[in-house]
Amino acid sequence: MRSLPRQRLLVVALAAAFSGPFALPHALAQAAVQAPNRDEAEFDLQVPAQPLDAALNELSRQTGVPILAAGEAAAGKTSRVVSGRLSAAQALQQMLAGSGLEAARAPHGGFAIRQASAGAAAAETTLPALTVRARADADAGGYVAHRASVGTKTDTPLVEVPQSISVIGSQEIDDKGLTTLTDALAQTPGVTVNPYGFDSRGLDWVLLRGFDGWYTSSFRDGLAQNVGITFLGVQTEVYGLDRLEVLRGPSSVLFGKGDVGGVVNRVSKVPGPDAVREIGVQTGRYDRKQVMADLGGAIDAEGQWRWRVVGLGLDTGTQDQYPNGERMTQKRQYLAPSLKWQPTPQTSLTLQAEVLRDDGSDDVQFVSDFDGHPTPLKEGDPSYSRIETGSDAIGWQFAHRFDSGWKLQQNARYAHRTSDKHHIQSFFLDPTAPNLLDRQARHDVEAVDENSIDTSVQGKVDGGGVSHTLLFGLDIDRSRAEWQRWQDMTTPLDLTNPVYGIPIAEPTSKARDKQVILEQVGLYAQDQVRIDSHWGLTAGVRQDRVKSRYENRMPNPDSNEVGVAERTDNATSGRLGVTYQVGNGWAPYASYGESFVPVMAVDEGKLLDPSRGKQVELGVKYMPEGEAVSFTAAVFNLEKTNVVTYDAEFAAHAIGKVRSRGIELEARAALSPRLRLTGSFSALDMKVLSSLDSTEVGNMPILTPKQTAALWLDYALGAEVLRGVSVGGGLRYIGKRWDNVANTESQPAYTLADAAVRYDNGPWRFALNVTNLFDKAYLSGHAYGSYFRGTERNVLLTAKYRF
User: Fold this and answer.
1) What does CATH list as the number for 38-134?
2) CA-CA-CA-CA torsion for 313, 319, 323, 328, nearest 10 degrees?
3) Hey, how many other C-beta atoms are within 10 angstroms of the C-beta on 302?
4) How many Cβ atoms sit within 10 Å of the Cβ of residue 308?
5) Is CB count within 10 Å lower at the N or C end of the chain?
6) Helix ranges (DSSP H) in 177-251
7) Contact indicator for 673, 32 with CB cutoff of 8 Å
């Protein structure tokens, strides 16, 4: 029996992607219905003995038959060798012999793995398809998640959360060859990445619904990573992540510092019920060399103690180079050990640590000439322009469920981040010498210490036909930052005869010496009400108290800065949403949310008022239970007051109020056992409503695209064609962006193509991933006197061995 013809599958996929929000779920459902049953077909199989969860995944891949191990059924077990021409049922019988497990048929095809003593009725439950998982919040079908912690901080299905959420899992990251956080988010609706073009420093440049998410939307395991108190940015090693969760819209009720555009929560790899044994190497364009390992398993026979270590080493050139031919480089070392103790099913404690070192070139943009025309020149010099960053973190995740059903949970982390940055800033000082670019050598040293702890209790209370899931929490955060700068004028750059590689003297004139302290305490409460099988209400409230202190140890009497500025703020934030589950996976919703973010910047000798935001969102979700299908659509209107922007000298300005309206569509589906799809579309109408600069009032902020879209298809060729081979491809569209606040100059829209080829052979995986397949040249923007070039074609070849 043959699988659904590829031509039909491609037609279904393309129709689904482009026929609109109402036709898409129907197309996805049709694909699932039309895919024939493969349970009884015979295949030439070869599955070596290995951990059972890996063996089941391999069997599912070779046969195209959905297989799922519910709960922790496969944990700690080893499979037997499967070899010969067998059906999936026969292979499972052979593989599970002596394991105490059995394979039961699932209602929509495929098999569920369960304890042999389980009742036959268990096979009739609706089960996620296509992959073996042990956690409720893990991916279903590889690209489709039905649960995530970011929406409510409770174990709530995404279809019941009245807010727009996207989840990018580790399998999707691996299949698409995504090596940076911005790559991983590039196909997510409502998210714009790298507005300043390619960045060799590995910083997480992200816009969420048009608002900067670099400082105030960065979270790790539910705790804020950066609160915008210095210019030291966050760097994320994607190989250390289990998944990414993107919550769009205000979320201060749960996260405190989450900005109006939303939050990006990075979920770390930690010990799970299954053993993990993976090593790999990677090479690619620009002489890339990378080694990596992800190892872990049980320490004791009972599995109460489990460990995991994730490590990576990178040494690579980048696409940017100086006119003398010297290429910019990046080096990175990453290590993340973790230890989990689970003495009972009700209690667990996970200890985590992370060490990251990054050494990269610090010369991002290309300079313009005196008349504003682009040049191929860099303002810095390879002998000087460099940035070294470090991040050390340690923390824990504790959870205990009481006999009453109530659950206590606590997440905590201490992080210390440093940056040593040598940078050259350029400007034209003499209009009579338009070819001479004056330059200033700068040396910035920064350090940030963050202490965060979030403690919550949650439980259910039923009565009067109404069910309440209650959450009460307290989070405390204290951040302290130090920033010093030395600067001196250095050798100018002649634009007609540039010379690079000359010695640049270390600056000795101290120009900045600042300390910033932020202490925030927040109390929050949430009630998720289920009135019946259809109606759900989510309501939350939070009270924050924030103490801010800004000390300038080198005040300039000619500027508006002062020696010390302090303030205390109290703020209340709210959230209200309603969801109606129609049935068959459909759930329209409406929600209102608010945000509150302290601003650590000085204007007129005083710390700026905190920014406030509010949003109304209407949407619909289609997430049928037990199917690897997810479709969401949302329209929103949000406003943010006291918006702060930074000029070329990083001086703070409050521009008043900004409004953002838009529509977002996202589709994720397994159209057949072999074909997966992800797609997204966003349209944004963003305007400055009030500002001291009348030029920008009524206009769209710079570097923000009006529309974005993405489509990706991934197809496993299967045993009939070429066993183990999978191919993937997709398109990314970025719309027009304005270069100036007057909206008179812009960059045109562009479309990029990506491709992937993978070969799985037992424990081996080989992958070739290409981004910007046709090497399209484009500019992300032209602002602040510089041009920001887009990312060129990049080629990665990866080999991994899982044992």
Assistant:
1) 3.55.50.30
2) -20
3) 10
4) 22
5) N
6) 181-185
7) no
Say if CB 229 and CB 479 are below 8 A apart.
Answer: yes
C-alpha dihedral (148, 151, 152, 157), degrees to nearest 10 = -50
The count of other CB atoms within 10 Å of the CB of residue 333 is: 16
Q: Which residues contact 176 (CB under 8 A, 6 or more apart)?
A: 183, 712, 728, 754, 756, 769
183 token code pair:
């790559």
CB burial of residue 109 (10 Å; 0-12, 13-18, 19+): middle
Taking each helix axis from N to C end, the angle separating 88-95 and 52-63, rounded to the nearest 10 degrees, works out to 170
Pinpoint the alpha helices (H) of 242-332: 252-255
**CB-based burial label for 118 (10 Å; 0-12, 13-18, 19+):** middle
Structure tokens at 300: 């004791």
Which residue, among 685, 683, 680, has the nearest Cα to 665 in the 3D structure?
A: 680
DSSP string, 720-748: TTSTTEEEEEEEEEE--EESSTTS--EE-
Q: Residues 553-561: what's their mean pLDDT?
A: 67
Could you give the C-alpha distances from 365 to 368, 590, 734, 736, 793, in angstroms and in order? 10, 42, 20, 20, 18
Query: What DSSP designation does 645 have?
Result: E
- pLDDT bucket at 598, cuts 50 / 70 / 90: confident
CB 216 within 8 A of CB 597: yes
Instruction: Tell me which residue of 435, 346, 357 sits closest to 393, measured CA to CA.
Output: 357
Task: Classify 415 as helix, strand or coil.
Answer: strand
pTM of the model: 0.83
Token pair of 160 as six digits: 């019941």
> What are the contacts of 308-311 at 24+ separation with CB within 8 A?
308/269, 308/270, 308/271, 308/272, 308/276, 308/337, 308/338, 308/339, 308/340, 309/335, 309/336, 309/337, 309/338, 310/239, 310/240, 310/269, 310/334, 310/335, 310/336, 310/337, 311/335, 311/336
Strands (E), 464-534: 466-494, 510-530
Sort 778 into a burial class: Cβ within 10 Å, 0-12 / 13-18 / 19+: middle
Beta bridge partners of 493: 437
CB 644 within 8 A of CB 652: yes
**E strand segments, 299-378:** 305-321, 327-344, 347-361, 366-368, 374-378
- Note the residue count of the chain: 803
For 590-609, letters b (16+ CB in 10 Å) and e give ebbbbbbbbbbbbbeeebbe
DSSP string, 455-483: EEEEEEEEETTEEEEEEEEEEEEEEEEEE
Percent of the chain predicted with pLDDT > 90 = 61
Q: Please report, for the chain, the start and end positions of each structural domain, with discontinuous segments joined by +.
A: 38-134, 266-802
Q: Which residue has the tokens 């037992």?
A: 762
Judged by DSSP in three states, 93 sits in helix
Task: For 244-293, write each residue's pLDDT tens digit.
Answer: 999 999 989 998 877 899 999 999 999 988 899 999 999 999 999 999 99
CATH of 266-802, one of 1.10.240.10, 2.40.50.100, 2.40.170.20, 2.60.120.280: 2.40.170.20
Give 325's contacts (C-beta < 8 A, 6+ positions apart): none
- What is the predicted pLDDT for the residue at 174? 92
Cα 607-611-613 angle, rounded to 5 deg: 170
Confirm if 393 and 353 have CB atoms less than 8 A apart.
Answer: yes
pLDDT digits (tens, 9 = 90+) for 63-90: 878 887 754 566 667 777 787 778 888 8
Q: CA–CA distance from 638 to each of 592, 611, 617 (Å)?
A: 10, 13, 8
Taking all residues of the chain, what is their mean pLDDT, rounded to a whole number? Answer: 86
Q: E strands within 161-217? A: 165-169, 191-193, 206-208, 211-212
